[in-house]
Design a protein that fits this description.
This protein has 197 residues and is an alpha+beta fold. It has a single domain, classed as Nucleoside Triphosphate Pyrophosphohydrolase. It has five helices and eleven strands, in the order ααββββαββββαβββα. The strands form two sheets. Strands 1, 2, 3, 4, 5, 6, 7 and 8 form an eight-stranded mixed sheet that branches. Helix 1 packs across helix 5. The radius of gyration is 16 Å and the shape is globular. The N and C termini lie close together (11 Å). Its cofactor is Mn(2+); Mg(2+). It holds the Pfam family NUDIX. Keywords: Hydrolase, Magnesium, Manganese, Metal-binding. This is Nudix hydrolase domain-containing protein.
Length: 197
């Protein structure tokens, strides 16, 4: 399983560059506005059975309140690269110390309705890592076995309207958590890459 995941990734020496793999669709929906760089950490706890790390955003945030997300956020001007952004944001949001993170590689960039171009960084998280959610940003940290996402019946498809256009969407439901939007789309892209690896 981890071997297939590793084969699905871009190597650390070859980080992806914009545009995102969904650029054509996003251009239809939001036009050619400049995409702001961001990065997320797709962390897999290094246990007997790999578990993926997710956050639940606090309800009072101005954007994506209450949604499930990967740790991550906007790039700072001082960030050297997407890996730096993902590690910094993960430490700020959930108290994940960089010494407990072993980067494995990248997924292709992904563009969002809100005008970001996200670089997903996939990494192994040490089993002993402790999470301390920042209460102003993260309400909860939870883990999902990677095998859950590998079961095709757990992928749900639906359609939604956005500015008069029909969009095909995917989501997952795990123990009361709804994983949807950009997080689910990035996950689906990873699963497709793993199948092809």
């Amino acid at each position: 399983m981890m071997e297939a995941l590793q084969r699905a990734l871009r190597p650390l020496s070859q980080p992806p560059a914009p545009p995102g793999w969904n650029h054509a669709l996003m251009t239809e929906l939001i036009g050619e506005i400049e995409r702001r760089p961001a990065a997320v950490l797709i962390g897999l706890r290094d246990a007997n059975e790999p578990h993926m790390i997710f956050t639940v955003r606090t309800d009072h945030l101005s954007s994506h309140a209450g949604q499930v997300a990967f740790p991550g956020g906007s790039a700072d001007p001082t960030d050297a690269d997407a890996l730096t952004t993902a590690l910094r944001e993960s430490e700020e949001e959930i108290g994940l110390h960089p010494s407990h993170v072993t980067p494995l590689g990248y997924l292709d960039c992904f563009e969002t309705i809100s005008g970001f171009c996200i670089t997903p960084v996939v990494a192994r998280i040490a089993n002993q890592a402790q999470f301390r959610p920042a209460p102003d940003e993260v309400a909860e940290v939870f883990e999902v076995p990677l095998t859950f996402f590998l079961e095709p019946s757990n992928l749900k498809r639906y359609q939604m309207d956005y500015r008069g256009r029909r969009r095909e969407m995917v989501e997952f439901h795990y123990q009361g958590h709804r994983i949807w939007g950009a997080t689910a789309a990035i996950l689906q892209h990873l699963l497709q890459k793993m199948e092809q690896a």
